Amino acid sequence: MSDHIHIKGLRLVTRVGVPAEERALPQSVAVNVTITLSKSFKGFDDRIEHTIDYYQVSLRLREVAATGERKLIETLAEDLAASVIAFDGVCAVTLEVVKFILPDCESVSVLITRAREHV
User: Fold this and answer.
1) CA distances from 63 to 30, 35, 56, 104 (A)
2) How many separate domains does the chain show?
3) What is the mean pLDDT of the chain?
4) For residue 8, is it left (φ>0), alpha (ψ between -120 and 50) or beta?
5) What is the mean pLDDT of residues 40-62?
6) Which domain holds residue 20?
């Protein structure tokens, strides 16, 4: 059994795109994030320090997205997932990056799942 925290539709400002013109100006992408916790919600005793602070996760995702530029949303997804995995108590993350770029198309997205490597 695994317990999850889900962040849906978080808008991030980033510079991403294959052509340089596309990366010239910041653009908005959306992310959906499912965080798998290393322990269940049971026993959290209604205390924030026993869980993952999703507000802090959202701030970190915004920071990573705003840093630098990338050609591929696949690379952005990897960078964002790595930043979530770094939080204590996270054992895995599934992350979708949604880009609004193609005409006559709602969106294009990539979806990845990454687990914490146990050493």
Assistant:
1) 14, 18, 11, 30
2) 1
3) 93
4) beta
5) 89
6) 4-115
The pLDDT value given to residue 25:
93
Which has the closest alpha carbon to 81: 48, 110, 119?
Answer: 110
- First CA to last CA across the chain, in angstroms? 23
Check: CB of residue 50 under 8 Å from CB of residue 37: no
pLDDT of residue 6: 97
Task: State pTM to two decimals.
Answer: 0.93
9's CB contacts (< 8 A; 6+ apart) are: 30, 31, 32
Q: Which amino acid is it at 24?
A: A
Q: What is the CATH number of the domain that holds 111?
A: 3.30.1130.10
